[in-house]
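Appendix B, record 7
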Amino acid sequence: MIWIILSVCCSVLVSVLLRLARGWSVDARQAIAFNYLSAGLLTWLLLRPAMPSVQQPASVYVAFVGLGVLLPAVFVALARSVTTAGIVRSEIAQRLSLVVSLTAAAMLFGDVPTAAKAGGMALGLIAVVLAIAGRRDGSPRGASHWPWLVFVGFGVIDVLLKFVAQSGTSFPAVLLSAFVLALMLSLIALLASQTTFTLRNFGAGLVLGAANFANIYCYIRGHQALAAHPSLVFSTVNIGVVVLGALVGIVAFGERPGPMRMTGLALALVAIVAISLA
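Structure tokens (predicted):
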């Protein structure tokens, strides 16, 4: 259970670091770019991926490029979401992005959900709408579209990861390849915009990447430790992140979710349990 607790804490830590970046004069775009450097190195050192064969279908390469583009883009959206819409809304959007990936799995991979899972997915969508819609908690105008981008973006990333995994490539190899490509494309974009790189942003990126990788690594170890109970790991991590993220957002950052958002939070927890037990 310690791996699950660590995964939850590291996931929320990523959002906290993104929330604090502006106050620490950190350029989130640079930090996100350099995060893939430390995350990639840790993936190489601790997961020891076997490099995938270059003889892959063209569709797999398209998915890899999609991951390379979406990983930093959605990470930037997450950074904007936690700073404008808050950690509570952002964590709900990120965790319930599984509704997008489950819907795509039914449409693209023939993984038709059971009635119970479909009900959980419907509840999840309602929860996202209640948690994200409106400006009743004093968030700035335009803040709502960032959580929606997080919701859709992480769902699409999950779909692409599943698609590449179905090609027979091991998950560590997929992860490392995606991190390397994301780093390269992020640096190219920053250089094209004539960004001035600083040591502060570089260091912040390495710390962010370590937290990002630790979240993934602890989640994998949690599944390994509880191999006979994958639904328990899935539900506990997702519920833990939503609850801890809400507590941190409310207590540490003074976020004030109104009744509608609290209802969305409650429905999100019910939806996660329903999906994991289906």
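Remarks on this record: The CA atoms of residues 120 and 271 lie 5 Å apart. The longest helix spans residues 58-84.
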